[in-house]
Specification:
alpha+beta, 8-stranded antiparallel β-sheet, 5-stranded mixed β-sheet, globular
Amino acid sequence: MKKLYINSGGFDAVFNDFKDSFGGELTADNNEYNLEINSKWTKGSIKGTRFDDRVLFMHFDLEFNHEVSLSIESFKTAPVFFVYCENGNVSHSFGANGEKKILNKNQSAVLSNSSVINSVLYFENHKRIQFTLLGIPTIDNKNAELVSQVIHHFTNDSGNYIYIGKENLKISDKIKEYNTVPEKGLVGTQLKKSIIMNIIETEVVRHSSNYPRAFDPVVNLTMKPVSEIKRIFAMNFSVILAAARHFRSKYHFHLNHIIKN
């Protein structure tokens, strides 16, 4: 088995560690990262986007020629990760000697680790694995309402939390929606961020024992990125409308001048 290690750090550091471990060509543009891998023992890709508040989206599409274990240090921001397996399977343990739990195709997992024990992922050889990972930090995050609920539902006193369950079709549809957002730039970024937050809020509701109580703040939180998108569109529309009014006024004046003369 090939053993690899990922040190905790910023998004840049994590992707550079992936590059050092797997090889390949890494490109980065506006907080969007893409690592294309085609080495003797690994092929595939790792893609990721880091948003404000260090919320992140990553997609793994890999196939190994050897069995691999990937040991990952806990992060200082104590993120909670939501994982959705689309193909193959991956095993997880807290520490090399911890109990292994398997995430299979069409299953989802929630994982948090704030202890000194590493999280270890295990990959089988000659089997394609595809999974999506979302992460939200629970330290130094401005979204206090949502973070408090995430901490309540997806952390424990030991610092090692993992839950594995069935795929949620609504969340799967949201991931597909994320991957097909056509807009670029600020509008596209806000749309993608709103989809991620909606997925995390849906997870909170799913794991809440008191659905109505959890739902109200979730609705309020969902509307925040939507309001921001509306503001951006409103700004652009205002500029277009002002230009149109200016053109109409100028053209109308010119036409009247021609008629009078």
